Amino acid sequence: MPALPQDRVSSGSPPETPAGGASSGAGYNQPQQLSSSAKTRFRTSSSALADGAFRALVVACALAVLAIVGLILFELITQSRLSLHKFGLSFLRKTIWDPVVEDFGALPFIYGTVVSSLVALIIAVPLSVGTALFLTEICPRQIRAVLSVCVELLAGIPSVIYGLWGIFVLVPFMRYYVEPFLARYFAWTGLFGGPKIGFGMLAAGTVIAIMILPIIASISREVIVAVPRQQREAALALGATKWEMLRIAVLRNARPGIMGAVILGLGRAFGETMAVTMVIGNRGEIARSLFAPGDTLASVIANQFAEATGDVYLSALVEMGLVLFALTLVVNALAGLLVWSVTRGMPARSLA
Amino acid sequence: MPDLTTHDISWSRRCKNYLALGTITAGALVVTVPLFLILGTVIYRGIGGLNLDFFTQLPKPVGETGGGVANALAGSLMILGLASLIGVPLGVGTGIFLAEYGRNRYGNVVRFTADVLNGVPSIVIGMTAYAIVVLKQGHFSLTAGSVALGIMMIPIVSRTTEEVLLLVPHPIREAALGLGIAQWRTTLSVVLPSAKGGIITGILLAFARIAGETAPLLFTSLGNDYWNFRLDQPTAALPVQIFKYATSPYDDWHSKAWTGALVLITMILLTTVAFRLVTSRGVRESG
């Protein structure tokens, strides 16, 4: 099974039957809670005590999860208090970043996060949806196993190694081949101007694209598998070619779920830190050209947090973390809802 | 599905069909290219620096050749070990809660929160660990790094634990309860053992995921050029060391970064392979 994505699929509102309710069709796999009288009637008091203790223990674990998320939010807000107080909402639209005079604005970094992630999506979405379609609908069984292992391995490579590879392989390749090519044929778009140094938005977007490919591919795959077989058969019976069938029956039905997968990938892209830090060039300025170096919320935190001196400086960096947290929260919730709307009720994997 | 449509379709539709299917296939193959490129480069550039010194020596200062990353390897293992001590019990406990007691509104809240936690960027978790450990202690430390990584483990472990516990057939629980065994013993000595393989899978998965994490360690465990075995002192970790070497201007350090990457990737792949072995055995047992 693909490793990373499942643990996110049902964020949103998971489709479990409520306790004690009739588990329609779920059969024996859905543990129902026994009514408390049935549980305790034949029990001695000591084992009832032990039951209570065990229950309290696992409830404590669950509460710890709630507490941790609460704590993250709490710490982000209290630690960024100074900056929140001093800059207010202007923090989000100022482009200045000057530790010396302690004046900070996050706009270039928000811009960098969004643009590098969008570049990544433009590259990754067609490839990963294609991979998902290929794996579920086209490829022969033997190749399927190999290819899905490859995709899984891609998800297992640590960010810092993508960054290392980015610095020494991807960046030179961008500088000597990709950027001259783009500058020559697509300069009219205005996106590919300026010095060709390799480090920059484009390189960052490309690395992020490779990193979010697996997650988009494997969730799209689950969503595609969840499309009822009858839809495919109906399309074929009406005389559709395979591609027409995929387009009419599969992609159309899976569209919201694939959108969810894409948005989930976007959430991942927003938070991506190390690889981006290593190839984006680290300059907090807004430039139109994708060749220009930039900075993201995550990369500026990675670069400056450990060395930040001054309370306002530190708290401005924490506020960037808060902005990043809020961005990913919204994006992930939206994605979970969309994926759930397609796979709802059915654990997609059991249909595979 | 039998393809009944190969004749009597117009030339243009047939062309479009082959073109689209071909593009999809090509796209899927392109996806594997970066994997082989990255693995290939890491092996090619990393294998030269692989020797005993790399695993047993401390880093040498710039300009001196030789030396290794022994302290970073040890530091990584300690951080990961301590992180597992935090993440595994909490994760498994939460998973048990979700599967055995959480088929209700409260469970949904916890499930949703765990998903939120899973989506929090690792660097933000690092900041939190900085705030709750480093600021309180007054300096960067091994503990702070472990707290950050441990928090990251929880949602992964809890999700897999819940999933495999739900796969344990309900009649098994009923049989145990029917024999008069208390519910907590049923969970601990009947349900958990039959789901053991799956839970170990989840733990390995989480382990592989956090083993390469760098961002949350940057300002928690920080790094260290010497040995450290104390919980309250800055500690070197392999991913952070790779980052430091990779972004340095020295060729010797670059080659160290590649060798470090090779070691790290091998470690993670071995864990993943172990994970696959455990899962495939689990499937055979239950199927």
Account of the protein in words:
The complex is a heterodimer of chains A (352) and B (287). Chain A is mostly helical and 352 residues long. Helix content of chain A is 68%, strand content 1%. Chain A contains 13 helices and 2 strands, in the order ααααββααααααααα. Chain A has a two-stranded antiparallel ribbon. In chain A, a hairpin with a 4-residue loop joins β1 (97-98) and β2. The radius of gyration of chain A is 25 Å and the shape is flat. The model of chain A is unreliable at 1-31 and 347-352 (pLDDT under 50). With 287 residues, chain B is mainly α. Chain B has 2 domains: 6-49; 54-286, Orthogonal Bundle (MetI-like fold). Chain B is built from 11 helices and no strands. In chain B, α3 crosses α10. The model of chain B is unreliable at 283-287 (pLDDT under 50). At the A-B interface, α1, α3, α5, α6 and α7 of A face α1, α3, α4, α5 and α6 of B.
What share of the residues of chain A does DSSP label as strand, in percent?
under 5%
Helix content of chain A: 55-70%
Strand content of chain B: under 5%
What's the oligomerization state?
Answer: heterodimer
Main sheet summary of chain B: none
Identify low-pLDDT runs of chain A.
Answer: 1-31, 347-352
CATH class group of the largest domain in chain B: Mainly Alpha
- Separate helix tally of chain A: 13
Q: Distance between the terminal alpha carbons of chain A, to the nearest Å?
A: 10 Å
Beta strands of chain B, count: 0
Strand order of the largest sheet of chain A: 1-2
User: What overall geometry of chain A do the principal axes of the alpha carbons give?
Assistant: flat
Count up the domains of chain B: 2
Superfamily (CATH H level) name of the largest domain in chain B: MetI-like
Radius of gyration of chain A: 25 Å
Radius of gyration of chain B: 24 Å
Distance, first to last CA of chain B: 26 Å
Q: Report the helical percentage of chain B.
A: over 70%
